[in-house]
What does this fold into?
Amino acid sequence: MILSILDTKIEFLKGVGPKRASLLNEELRIFTFSDLLNFFPYRYVDRSKIHTINTIKSFDVDIQLIGNITNKKKIGVGRKNRLVVDFVDSTGVVQLIFFKRIKWIDDFIQIGNKYLLFGRPKKYGSSISFVHPEIEIVENGNKKNRYPLYPLYHSTEKLTKSGLNSKGISKIIINVLESTLNSIVESLSDSIINKYKFSSRKLAFSTIHFPENLEKLNKAIHRMKFEELFFLQISLLKQKRIRKIKMKSHIFNKVGPSFNIFYKQYLDFQLTNAQKKVMKEIQNDMTSGFQMNRLLQGDVGSGKTVIAIMSIILSFDNGFQSCLMAPTEILAKQHFDSINNFARNIGLNVVLLTGKTKKQIKNQIISDLINNEIDLIIGTHALIEDNIKFKNLGLVIIDEQHKFGVSQRAKLWTNKYILPHVLVMTATPIPRTLAMTAYGDLDLSVIDELPPNRKKVETIHKYDREINVVYNFLYRELKNNKQVYIVYPLIEASKVLDYKNLLQGYENLKSIFEQKGIRISMMHGRLKKDQKQLEMDKFLNNDTQILVATTVIEVGVNIPNATIMVIQNAEKFGLSQLHQLRGRVGRGSDKSYCFLVTSNKLSSDAKVRLRAMVNSSDGFKIAETDLHLRGPGDVLGTRQSGLLNLKISNLVQDRDLLYSARDEADKLLNDDLYLKNIKNLKIRNFFLKYHQKQLKWGIVS
It folds into this structure.
């Protein structure tokens, strides 16, 4: 591809050089002229307004003054040396204080001259001062600001020391605009530009960095946000369509006897309409001849596991092996036990493989897998070891997908020509805007309906001072043979974080409840695997009635008799985590409760989280609140973190624009998947240059 001036290394830009270039590379990931052009201001200061000294009331914003210098003097010696300048207008006087470049500033500032000052005022007693303000001479008694909306850029300590603070960055951006403006090419088709009345790309760049007014700035930002989201969606949707054309997989066109036996004899409840819809989507994928790559998301308790089971039986009826990966041994064992209850009766040979499987048994499993004597293997990360080989793998199911990396999943199969179907399940509801971006290359299925027998968990917020009320309620429920989870955020007391800790809580609960005949067990991440399983089994078998734990119980544990969840220091947990923990109760037909116990001092965000939990049990509503509070990066964790490194758009604030960009990308690729039409040439050229290599996820989700 022909290089343009935009591809020039940043060190060759006037005002940069090798030393500053190295810092820009390291600190801001700016390597080329194009990178600098796409380094946008984070906000703008209105420099069209001139204040007077007597109107200064706020000390947390930058302002402008026009006045004269009436006096200047150097004070102190050595490091305490500073230049103090009296700056006067018709309403008062302020002091300007300079600690650096004193000789140059002293020469520049002349008593009697008029200057334009820009900076942030500070107040000491009754006097007002400015430390290192920007200052420019006013000629002919008038100063017209070149940039009425002044851009502010993020910088770092290292860059600031080298002269590249916000003002320094704005200076080199002026240079890059002067060098490249005529080389900026259009990225959108004429039809899209006309439809949305976008400004040209050249004008958008110039305006975003140095706007003439707010109206033009908003138009430029709108255009560049659309461009960013549009090409992101093209990348995602193009990959998705090409995968459906090229990635061949097995055809499961048979609904056999095993499926019918399970459906009629072992499914002792009616599927919800949402489950039926999802099952139909999966069947359509499995009969297409191309690889299924589907994300199944549903709230806690919505019935994703039964969808997984039915998909596994479809694979079995068509003569293929299946694999189910779970993030923890407890969850893997739980899946194994629930499936093994009926597996033998339909001829399904199921095995469990975890890190603690004995070597002799593991070797037998490895042999049986390659000889096609195992129909379903359930396990943890142990399944992706190099020596695990399948004879005829047809379906991979990954439970709680964020626990597994892309490269890890790819290890599950060796045949790169006929790929297994992939179903990824998550109990963390994902807002639609996030699903369209972080998972936009996958087909999405949503179970947004709970089974009719599931009762809403009543969520109650209590303060520490009310804990005895909570304990009295627990005792009444425990006497009725119910079980209780009590979750703490830490294992041991922290000198830094004043949370209640689990060990103290455990001892306290023993002193309160054991004398009343209530047995208590404790589980946390530092226990050895065997001990952890022992404690869990005690609670599962009702040998203990209270399980004191950290968040190790967050994912997947299913104990219908546990009807109460108490979360201590609930203000310290994220909204998604609170919702997941609440999902551990309410899994039977009995009324269930979740107590959120907090300190009296709560931040505004903590109050929003607690209010959301008390007012709603809808995981998708809670996920939207979480997105607004934390932003997309934190909500998704590490999943495709680079993908969501958006330069100017925001998935929370720009939802409508995202939908428009996706619709346009969808229409474009429906008509011209490979962007060969002459009318799409600008889009094609820009996509090939800047976005072709953006997504390198290979053939798995």
